[in-house]
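Ticket #4471: complex job returned nothing on first submit. Input attached below:
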Amino acid sequence: MSEAVLASDGDRSPVVTVERGQRAVFCGLTSIVWLHRKIQDAFFLVVGSRTCAHLLQSAAGVMIFAEPRFATAILQDRDLAGMADCHEELDRVVEELLSRRPEIKTLFLVGSCPSEVIKLDLNNAAGRLQTRYDGRVRMVAYSGSGIETTFTQGEDKCLAELVAANSGRTDRESPALIIAGTLSDIVEDQFQRIFDDLGIGPIAFLPARSGDTMPIAGPHTRVLLAQPYLTETAQALKGQGAKLLNAPFPLGAEGTLLWLKAAADEFGVTDSLFNEVTAAPLARAKQAVGYQREKLRGKRIAFLPDSQLELPLARFLARECDMNVESITTPFHDPQIMASELTLFGDHPDMIEGGDLETRLDHVRQLRPDLTVCGMGIANPLEAEGLRSKWSIELIFSPIQGFDQAGDLAGLFSRPLSRAAQLEV
Amino acid sequence: MELSLWTYEGPPHVGAIRIANSMRGVHLLLHAPQGDSYADLLFTMIERDNHRPPVTYTTFQARDLGSDTAELVLNSIHAAVEKHKPQVLLVGDSCTAELIQDQPGSLATSCGLSVPVVPIEMLAYSRKENWGAGETFYSLVRGLLQSRVPAPGTEPAPRGGQPPSVNLLGPSSLGFRCRDDVREITQLLAQMGVRVNVCAPLNASPGDLLRLPDADANVCLYPEIAGPSCDWLQRNFKQPTIKTVPIGVGATREFLAEVAETLGIEYAPDATDSRLPWYSRSVDSTYLTGKRVFVFGDATHVVAAARIAHEELAFEVVGMGTYSREQARAVRTAATELGLKALISDDYLEVERVISELQPELVLGTQMERHIAKRLGVPCAVISTPAHVQDYPARYSPQMGFEGANVIFDSWVHPLMMGLEEHLLAMFRDDFEFNDSAQPSHLAAEGVAKRSENTAVNDSIHSEDADAAAELTWDLNAERELRKIPFFVRGKAKRNTEKFAADTGVSVINVNTLYEAKAHYSR
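Support reply: We reran it on our side without changes. The output follows.
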């Protein structure tokens, strides 16, 4: 069932093997958990089943807010049997929702596995509802279904749709630089200060904190990806004339430096200014990572598929923390977006794209690495087998990008090892 | 379509996974897309299981839909049987697979497997988790025992010389305190000389299910899960069902009496079996009298909790309800006995609205009500699923039996102010330390957070009544008087007074209005 494909045509290009089979990954709906915190005037309405609703609240864990800005329109027997018109029902639910939440400015209609299978056209629904709520609420439809997307790909679909929705708009100035991919507010603010100091601007973050201020790309816009899972978003931005800068991702001191350098070079920032701006935070980052490196050096690590952050994290841990990366499985591999990472990483193990759960678990059992990065459902079972684990969802929810988070990022990997070393029970 | 913000129950196939995960030697083949594997974390994170649940997800993708998903099902079935070597294979659909109608159950039964297959129909678009668990357990019991049902008219074989025995049915993975309830009830039965023949589904194997007919009776510990199975066993194997759920001192005594009567043995109640009665009668507990409680959760735990609250702690139950429509009747009946109308709803916001209207002093609920109560600044104890990781404690803490009653006394009273402390607080109301924002000393760690929550509650009371308050003002003396009312009832006093003022056309509230309102509402 495996097919080998070449990832890139560079000299040390690794073999990426596509492996099909049983998965244990979240679907794209899960990205709503962080997207709704980021886009503060948006509401995410999943059109799906009770499973979708249950997934969202299980993934959101204890993050129960007064009234969350996401919900599920749960399909029922009468919708499926054709006794109720799904579109009429959806209109009714949207009306109920918007009358209760008048402050909502953007409503995402999010497709799910069941809505895709019954071919419920949410784009059509968004168009119809847009006419009705024009000037008050912006309607955007995208799919987070698990038959098409895993975990972080949900954000890709969402952002790609936001970019497409802005197509042709000229009412606002296009920024010089778009930073694409959700980052914590604190990380955004840090990057904003650095770009200001470098004299690069105006810059804009995608997604913006409000639905109204999503950046509009233009022919002079440059794009830096802050997250590696944005294949379709990058395409959509390029489609509007923006230029995608090649860079590794801003994880670790080195990754952050090269990521900023790609923008600096593009905007003609002098080396002396670049060094002046980055010297202090770079030194801080190296120092902070250095403390953790002592604990991580020579430790063996394996990655099970989860977020598409696997390769950039492996690169950081290998190059800056001296860990031995022994196995990488990633849910989806985009050789173009990963080109700079692959070059930087150099000699690394071959990768699996997709992965069959039982085969991958057996592989980890055979390797017995010091640490396995894995999805939340698998972590305790691995621990019970005496294998230390790092649940990867924390790598999505915590601020890990940029110079001043590099030490924290390394700390996420050293903590399980320190804990295991300290426990006497 | 139904708009859902938070859901009390998962989909029915999560119930099926709970049954598979409860048992040994059972594997579930679930025809489902990749995202449905989130269910693993319910077990490994919330319940801290040390293994993945025994489930294989077929993981079909969009590109498979055009081709042959049935082929994928067959391959997954063979791979799962090969890898896990189950004694029984459960086969079912999740919600999306139900739509593509591959009939995985029929595929599995007709592909010549060496293991018995039990197909399950999960009705994802009309049913929910507890139903799915009950239905799956019933399918297993019936599937394995159907061929052994005695012919009509056959009398059960006499069990000469055997000690009396029962089956404990219903405890399951992700149930509420099931692990400890089973230990407690097994112990109590052993003291009466009654043996537990099989406990299922928790820790049972398919072979154990085959031994179910050997028992003299079935104990229906959790009707949500075991109801249909107990009925079927009663009809087909003439095993009586013991229906009293032993939660609380009174119910436990009744349960033991029902066991004794059903099995024809002696039971002599022992007045010192639980500490709850004495703790409840001791003077410190005087302060529990008439505490207003709101009870919400699954039917089994709500009915039991309402009875304990009323009869064993002398609380006042001001509202009760369940998210389970299937089990609503039992809750309605219990509510009627307390002069209440049960709230039957799985709409979290409606439950929140009712709680904030009733202004209880204690909420007994699920994980959801814990969040509601936290927001409203009301003490809360969790009594039912859905529950979170902290409700799967390391220590022995059953809900059932006499030890369960002790646990309940502690865990319901703990969030409240201790009696002596409440007394002192009333006495030294204006003392600089004993004031509104002083927290119970035994909850010191939460003091700071609680204080801001209390402020938030006052704020929300203000904003909620903003419309009414626009025309109403409090004069200085009335306001001072209001501050003297204990803070835990002050919100209610304020609302009542303002309502009374509005109804009687008073625009400036003075001390007299306050006490007239008090008299009006104390009727």
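Chain A touches chain B through 63 residues (CB under 8 Å). Closing as resolved unless it happens again.
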